[in-house]
Amino acid sequence: MARSLFTQMKEAGFTPDIVTYNSLIDGHGKLGLLDECIWMLQEAIKFFVDMRRVALTPNEFTYTSLIDANCKAGNLAEALKLVEEILQAGIKLNVVTYTALLDGLCEEGRMKEAEEVFRAMLKAGVAPNQETYTALVHGLLKLKKWSQATEALTLLEGMLDLGLIPTEDVRNGLQPNVAVYTALVDGLCKNNCFEVAKKLFEEMLDKGMMPDKIAYTALIDGNMKHGNLQEALNLRDRMIEIGMELDLHAYTALIWDCLTVVKCKSKEFA
Questions:
Q1: What's the Cα-to-Cα distance from 178 to each of 75, 101, 160, 185, rounded to whole Å?
Q2: Is-above-0.85 flag for pTM?
Q3: Euclidean distance between CA atoms 20 and 224, whole angstroms
Q4: Does a structural domain hold residue 136?
């Protein structure tokens, strides 16, 4: 549908610019429409080549949009080539470019390179944003590097406490969000780091954040596995009180773990 409308737009004499291409690539990427995303990216590259052919100089925004789009489409090699080109052109990388690269490297499990990019970013004096830290934390969680993931969160909070983030607006934007905490709580529970997960869950509540269904379900499951039946049921009740519906996964966790507890109790009295 989007491809058809895009073609109609061009046939009607309207010339799409890099903003149009980037918006369409980003939208298709978020919807998981990889084929459409790649097709749109190819169209954007043609546009980029045509720009240079008529002696129009691509600017920081053009390069950043293409690097970001390539990373979202999984074309990390092409994104890295564009990074070399942008540096040769004397254009500095900005927070969007660095974050796109970090996200792309993390998605491919190339954490060593991601950490190098992160260090280069700090050295260049570019302040990380919320998306930067989210990409790093998710990348570390993907590789099951729990200690480093929690360290990334601690690093962020430490920077805020020490006033190393320059403006109040940026400081507020950098506060670890629900997505970061949820990923940590879920991952830690699944990997038998329950006490740390519980501490982070309480930290969310103390900061006035609203844990989502994934965080609650992970903690319910963790409590049940550690024999804390009453605490798991309390969490279930809290979900109901705030109007959060239990999904199949939450009910399955409760039922399965209740059966496990009953089975263990039966063995004690056997």
A1: 29, 23, 17, 10
A2: no
A3: 50
A4: no
DSSP annotation of 86 reads: H
The CATH number given to whatever domain includes residue 262 is 1.25.40.10
Which range marks the domain in which residue 186 is found? Answer: 177-270
In this structure, are residues 80 and 110 in contact, taking their beta carbons and an 8 Å threshold?
no
**Residues for the chain: how many in total?**
270
Neighbours of 232 (CB within 10 A): 24
Token pair 């369409």 is found at 24
Spell 97-107 as b/e; 16+ CB within 10 A means b: bbbbbbbbbbb
Q: How far apart are CA 57 and CA 184, in angstroms?
A: 43
Q: Measure the CA–CA gap between 267 and 206, rounded to whole angstroms.
A: 40
Residue 96 domain-assigned?
A: no
What total number of domains does the chain contain?
1
- The single-letter code of the amino acid at 113 is E
H-type alpha helices, 124-193: 130-142, 146-161, 168-173, 178-190
pLDDT in tens, the chain (270 residues): 566 766 777 777 777 666 666 666 666 655 656 566 667 667 766 766 665 664 545 667 777 777 887 887 788 888 888 888 888 878 888 888 898 898 888 888 888 888 888 888 888 888 777 778 777 777 776 666 656 656 665 655 544 454 444 444 444 555 667 777 787 787 777 767 778 788 888 888 888 888 888 888 888 888 877 778 788 888 888 888 888 877 776 666 666 556 555 445 555 545
- Does 259 fall in a domain? yes
